[in-house]
Amino acid sequence: MGVGMGLGMCATKPWKWPGQLSPCTCTHCPQWPYCEKRCSYCNFNKYIPRGVEEAAMQKCLVTEAQTLLRLSGVQRVESVFFGGGTPSLASPHTVAAVLEAVAQTAHLPADSEVTLEANPTSTPGSRLAEFGAAGVNRLSIGLQSLDNTELRLLGRTHSARDALRTLAEARRLFPGRVSVDFMLGLPAQQVGPWLGQLQELLHHCDDHLSLYQLSLERGTALFAQVQQGTLPAPDSELAAEMYQRGRAVLREAGFRQYEVSNFARNGALSTHNWTYWQCGQYLGIGPGAHGRFMPQGAGSHTREARIQTLEPDNWMKEVMMFGHGTRKRVPLGRLELLEEVLALGLRTDVGITHQHWQQFEPQLTLCDVFGANKEVQELLEQGLLQLDHRGLRCSWEGLAVLDSLLLTLLPQLQEAWQQRTPSPVPGG
Ligand SMILES: C[S@@+](CC[C@H](N)C(=O)[O-])C[C@H]1O[C@@H](n2cnc3c(N)ncnc32)[C@H](O)[C@@H]1O
Ligand code: SF4
Question: PANTHER family, from UniProt (predicted)?
Fold first, then answer.
């Protein structure tokens, strides 16, 4: 979810269909679109500026946050996620100003999760403490690797030593509330040494860890190098082995794999991301930020997928003219929303409970959709899926092959939807 310093807010209260609307809550994702340097693998919406007009940027983030909060009719913000780009390059004053704007426009409970994505730096005594004073209470650190050759390949500006020092400082300032991103499946990476890095990380990390398999993105330097043959293509079988063995190591170390890529111990799950997988509402603020919410403040009862203008200068002009820089709005139909509930919910270990599903679709139960289908039955018999009194979820084995399970589940949902008795709900 974190892309740029976008503000993200997610609805944790049940989202209801027209006629049953309740005052809504959401999460907020501000995006800071600037980075120091382009990493070789990254295709996020980011810019390497000569200089940043921070005061103007801050003003626009504040304005857009206020506009979209009013438009959404959201009354309570459960979490805020400053993503990027590199939001740790923004000034703590900007972070504080955005949080203040949120708190003035909606209720931001004192215990809301406020996360900042932070890149490791070579400068000790960084501004992490100032971010804490500004209202940040959780950090997500882009560590990526503990091998200097790999870090160079990725085009990172930090060394393994910098990463560990930043991590130690973060843990001192935000005990129990530090997450690290760690990548796998890099070109030429081997299973044994990667597992060695993971074991080393376990000596240093806090209670939350995200494992991301490298996705080779068109348009990146890494993609070009692989195309030109100067680097070997990432090996998907080795990556699958790293993932399987890595998740086993983390389980052994007491981490719960609560989502396909996310691991937590001592209950340190990310509220913000959890709301996202539960298909809650969130507001995306800042250049290129994505959001999903119902513009109730404008009288609408349809949830929309929204994307803000990508390029920072254009986005700022639009915010100054219209109060927001929303470039694209796509109303989500009921089936589309159910597809999201299914695909996102199954990413978590809890899966989709019957109560959760019912909040989105009161008439067609999970058993109606999946109970009698032969292919789904096979997945249940193979032990990849579970459908019982709790709901529908992946087993430990199933979580690792979710994409292939969805190839059966999504068409089955579409078919059941076509065959259903049309609902009397307006707009249904
Ligand atoms: C929004 S990104 C970047 C956050 C921050 N600027 C940084 O670089 O650490 C969040 C995470 O996505 C992961 N990521 C980014 N590009 C990726 C790619 N092409 N394949 C796999 N993971 C990627 C990285 O682990 C990164 O830490
Ligand atoms: S990976 Fe992070 S720091 Fe690197 S270019 Fe992408 S957003 Fe910027």
Answer: COPROPORPHYRINIGEN III OXIDASE, RADICAL S-ADENOSYL METHIONINE DOMAIN-CONTAINING PROTEIN 1, MITOCHONDRIAL
